[in-house]
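ugh ok fine here u go
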Amino acid sequence: MFKSEYHFKFEDLIVYQKAMNFGEKINSITETFPKKEMYRLSSQYARAADSIAANISEGYGSTDANFNRYLKMAWDSSHECVTWNTKAFLRNYIDQNQFEENRRMLTEMGKMISALRRSLKNK
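structure:
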């Protein structure tokens, strides 16, 4: 992913790493969208995608209940991305392969977030 001499524990979470990669992928994709979408679809999609990792990192290290709240926000952001992904596809800004790959990644992250939330509740 990236290297630094300073390390934060939440960076070890696979779901965080996947969310970071997803955010970067969506940033690259939205840069290809038409200029008219800059403050509409592009911005909304990129912010929602970045929000997944941001919420995971923000809640990590807090109480289990608070971390669970942030994980719920990350999960909500992943579902928001489903909508923006579909809009991008319907507007022909992404092809079928990109559409399906994004959905696969969102499904995988959603399952990981849900499993992490369940593990916090069972402690």
